[in-house]
Structure formats: C-alpha cells, structure tokens
Amino acid sequence: MTETAPRLTVSTRPSRTPRGVPGARRIAAIDIGSNSVRQSGADVTPHGGITVVDEMKAAPRLGADLDVTGVLGTTAMERAAEAVGRMATLARQPGATRIEAVATSAVRDASNGQQFVSRVRQEAGLELRIIDGAGEARLSWLSALAHFDVGRGRTVVMDIGGGSLELALAADGVLDDLVSLPFGALRLTERYLRGGSGPRAVEKLRKHVRDALKNVLPRRDWRGAQVIGSGGTFTNLAGVHLARRGMLVARNVHATAVPREEVEHILDMLAAMPADERGGVTGLNPERSDIIVAGIAVAAEVMARLEARDIHVSRYGIREGLLLEIARITPSVADPGEARERSVREFAERCHYEEGHASQVQRLALRLFDAVGARLGCGPDERQTLGDAALLHDVGYHINYDRHHKHSYHLILHAELLGITPSEQVVIANVARYHRGAPPKKKHRNFSGLDKDLRDRILRLSAILRVADGLDRGHVGAVRELGIRYLERALRITPRPAKGARQLRLELWGAHRKSQLLAELAGIPVEIVAKNGVVLSSTEVDAIEG
C-alpha cells in the first residue's frame, strides 16, 4: 500500500486504545543506538495514517569506549537491555500488535554484539535486528520523505548518531546513494575531544571528516543540495538557535532552518565552553552537552562540502522510518507545499472554523499584500505566512468567543503543522492573535521576547490582516474586490460589492476601525472609500464609536 506523506502526529500522553479511524492497529519501534535508546508507539490506520501516541528515551551510552576496546561494556549492555525491556512492556500494555527493535552502529561494530542480542531476547522477549549503515540511511530517508518537500532538486538527508554518520542522497525524490561513515558524535568525542574542545582538537576532528567526505560526496554533483538533518545533534542545534532568537515559546524544533553561518557561530560558542558549562546553555539538553561539539562539527563539514546555505532540522528519524516500514507504507513524493496546505486546513477543520469567513479574509488579505506588501517591507515568503494566519485567525472560537484571538494564538502555537518552521509558526500564531484587539506592543510577553526581525514581520502582517478581517465584518462575503491606490498623501482602499450585496456599511466601518496600524507602518493615512465617494480616514478612527 502506498500513501501520500503519512502524518506522524506526536502526543506525549499514552493512549490505551487505538484512536481515530476504526481498524487502526498499534505498533511500536525501538531504535538502539550508540548513545541512546528510543521507542515510539503509534496507531496505524488502514489508509496509511500514522499517529505517534507515546515515546520513551534512555541514554545508556552503549557505544562508550567501543573504539578502544572493540566490545560493548557489561554495564552499558545491562542498562540498555533493561531500557529495551521497559519499552517493550510499555508497548505491550496498551495493546501493541507488533514491536520491532533495531540496533545500529555500536552493536554491529562490537565483537560481542550477538551477546547483547541475546540479552535483549532474554530481557524483553524481542528478536533484535542489526541493520547496516545503508539501512539506517534508508530509514532516515523514509522519514524525511514523509515530512519534507523533496520532490524537486537534490536533497541530502544527514543522520548523526552516537557511532556513525549516515547520508541519503536523492534527486527529484528518487534515492541515488546511501553512505555510512564512522563519524558519530560519541565516537568522535572519545577519539578527538577527551582532553577538551580547544581549537586545535576541533580542527583536527574536522579535517579528518573533511578528508573522508571528499571520497564519498562529489561536490560537483551535490553542491547546493537541500540538507535535512535528523538526530539529537540537530534537534539540540535547533534548540540553541531558536533560543538565541528569543524563540523559547516554539513548541518544537521540527523544520527549523539553521543558516550555515549560525551553525559555525554555535559551534564556536559551545567549543569554547567546558562541557559542564555547556549544560546550562538554553536550548541544549544537558545530557548531550559533552558530545554536542563533535556532532555539530560533523554537520558543519558536510554543509561546507555541499556549500549549503542552511540545514532543515527534522525531529523525526530512524524510528519513524521504521514505523513506516513496519506498516508497509511508502510515502510518495508530495508537491511542494502540499503537505503544508493540507496540514493547515485539517487543523482549521479540527477547530471547526468558519470556512466561508476564513477563506474570504484570506483572499482579501492576500490581495492587500500583493498591493502594499513590498512597500511595507514584506518579502515574498511572507505571503504564505499571511495566508495561513488569515485562514486560522478565528480558530480560537473553538474555545469560546471571548478573547478568541488569544485562544487562536495558543492553539496555533501548539498545533502540529507540517512544512512550517517553528519561527514561522510563532509568527502565524501572533499575526492571528493581533487580528483584533490591541495591536502588538512590547509589554506583551508573547511579542517582546522575539527578535526584531520576527517582531517586524508580525507588525506588517497583522496590519494587513486587521483590515482584511474588518472588510468581512458581517461574515457574509459582501466584498467582491478591492480597488487599491497608493497615493502620495494616502493609501486608498475601495471595496467593491459582491453580486447581491446591497451595501457595505458594516464592512466599510470594520476596515476603517482596524486601519490605524496599517497607516502607521505605511507612513500615510489609510482611506476606506465608499461607493458613493464618502471617505473614512484612519486619522478619524478615535472619533468613531464601537
């Protein structure tokens, strides 16, 4: 069975029975890596939808000292086997019909790997499958295929575990090559950074990685490819990056785009700190603070080899690829933006949004954007951000009418929306929040903690959305089109009635009441012009009742 981009929706609360579509079955995937052991339990529908309902993690560091001894340590094996046993119990209690456990770099490289396989069989009652590096890379690719637009151009999916680096190379959505190298964060930390992460040690590590990449990653073929990173190195990198931008409110780091220069800045910052001091860095998991430098150094070298502008972070990886494999689902390549559009609309439908009003406000907002956005300083990429905010601006009604704009903010902020970066999701949530009520102010905590670029985006898009929402004040779609003229002394907006609309008094009043922020940013008054020539100027808003 082949389905288009199954949705992997994450919930932190275990569910006792399969939810959603009748016939869903529960499965579980366990990934045993060199640094950590992770489990995901999910419900799979007959149509290929996958909903992750529970997750569990342990960090036994199974691959510790493996480079030196060639074997898995007894204590580490005990900790790892016990963790797998707990995870198997967790999966079986709510009725998992199949549990699949795979082991990666540490177990396949160790001379006593089969001894660990036996321990897992005894402790958890599972037959542990050891997969090779190509298998790891392929599972990471499956996961990326379900969550990112990879159908056009070249894509490199990079997974950095504790023991190895996996690369999946694809062109136009078709796999071209799978590469595995022994460049895991734990392995390289033990090899190069035991004595600290000084400049010479880090450069020696990077040179080793750099030289090896020349033989497996032809720059001519893969220069400028889209790069997707999965694994703890990347989620922690994204966490630090978002914290540096004031984005502590972001629900998760999935789809964060981290610029290459920011990767280098964060690497320099963390390498200059002692490991125990790194544990206090906002956005970084303290449990990973001792191996994060090696992981980011590998990522930086891959990006340099590809001359990549940024890296897109996936919170999904081998486990999710394994879930897809267990369920026998192969995600098909989605058209660019398709997953995002579907995800936004499905979220709106779950919130029982008023489709007619939302679509009308979206249409009017985009018309305004096309006419005045560039003059306000908007970039082309902000158009879709505005469109999504317009479609979702009233989802807060799902809770109640009072303060529904603030409810919209919280619902959007915590929604699972595919194809949208955390920073953009925060912008969408804020733009929806400011479609009514007071405009953005620095005393508002949700706004003041953001960096200037994000605050400016919110101001610009909120100003447009407020007017667009006012132009459908009656929720009846009375405005057919807008005449928009940017004059030297004013921005003139002339609503034209839809067929059957007798008058636009409510829409004129609504747009007029919400025009002040747009006038402030445009630097000239906004005039809402009636069919009979009457002009309502933003300079007179305070004199209007209501």
Overview of the structural elements:
It is a single chain. With 546 residues, the protein is an alpha/beta fold. It folds into three domains: 128 residues, ATPase, nucleotide binding domain (Nucleotidyltransferase, domain 5); 190 residues, Nucleotidyltransferase, domain 5 (2-Layer Sandwich), CATH 3.30.420; 206 residues, Hypothetical protein af1432. It is 45% helix and 18% strand. The strands form four sheets. Strands 2-5-4-3-6-7 form a six-stranded mixed beta sheet, with helices on both faces. Strands 10-9-8-11-13-12 form a six-stranded mixed beta sheet, with helices on both faces. Strand 15 and strand 16 form a beta hairpin. Helix 5 packs across helix 13. The protein is elongated and about 85 Å long. The N and C termini lie far apart (57 Å).
What is the helix content? Answer: 40-55%
Instruction: Tell me how many strands there are.
Output: 18
- Please report which band the strand proportion falls in: under 5%, 5-15%, 15-25%, 25-35%, 35-45% or over 45%: 15-25%
Tally of helical runs = 22
Number of domains as seen in the coordinates: 3
> What is the CATH topology descriptor of the largest domain?
Hypothetical protein af1432
**Main β-sheet description:** 6 strands, mixed
Q: What is the CA-CA span between the terminal residues? A: 57 Å
Average of pLDDT: 90
Cα gyration radius (Å): 26 Å
At the first level of CATH, the class of the largest domain is: Mainly Alpha
CATH superfamily membership of the largest domain: Hypothetical protein af1432
Structural class: alpha/beta
Strand ordering within the main sheet: 2-5-4-3-6-7
CATH architecture of the largest domain: Orthogonal Bundle
* Morphology call: elongated
pLDDT < 50 stretches:
1-7, 9-21
